[in-house]
Amino acid sequence: MTTPNMLLSLPTVTVTVGPTWANQVNAAIESIDSHDHSSDKGVKITPSGLEINADLDISNQVFYNFKSVKFQEQVSTLSGSTYSNSIYSVNGNLYFTSGSGTAIQITDGGSIVSTPSSASIFETTSVATNLTIGNSDTFVYLIVDTSVARTITLPLASGVSAGRIYYIKDSSGLSETYNITVNTQGSDTLDGAASQTLSSNYGTWTIIGDGSASWYIS
Q: pLDDT tens digits, residue range 133-168?
């Protein structure tokens, strides 16, 4: 008899005698031992039969003929060396983590995120609490509610590109009373000091980083 999937030739019970019986059994076992689920070597594995529960190394090979790729949503950016050179989705936006481990936002809603040096429309963010700006934050214009005093902490200048710009705007016109304090991190300085205070009603500061250890108010 011949099996339907691996086409094994098996002895017939009470009919096939030795040594033919033994040879057929040995040949069948050898085929089973070398099976890889390719044609005539076992039933094809279906998607429901796959459960990948750890990182999968494909040994520098290429994935191709995909119709699309659907990412699992992340709740925050994936930064650091563990995720370097990876692409993923956070809250519906596409991100890339560079070889240095820095998370870079690629899309913002229905638009591509442009770099500050080439953008004609800057991404804005409303600030109604104390804020520490992250290296991967893509906003440029900070609209600050000064109904109370606010503190804004800049990222390390070395953690962002040279020429990175932030516009800080007192949108409430109350910063003479409720100041906006802008702090640096580490040994960075802002116009030579660890922090500076914006205290002009409806005032706006343009802050530019040198990519090393200094920020400047323009």
A: 998 888 999 999 999 999 999 999 998 888 899 999
Which residues of the chain, if any, have pLDDT below 50?
117
Domain ranges of the chain: 1-43, 69-113, 116-217
Rounded-to-integer distance, Cα 195 and Cα 15, Å: 95
Q: How do residues 193-204 score in pLDDT, each as one tens digit?
A: 999 999 999 999
The pLDDT of residue 206 is: 97
The answer regarding whether domain 116-217 maps to CATH 3.30.160.140 reads: no
Q: Look up residue 184 and give its two tokens.
A: 């640096």
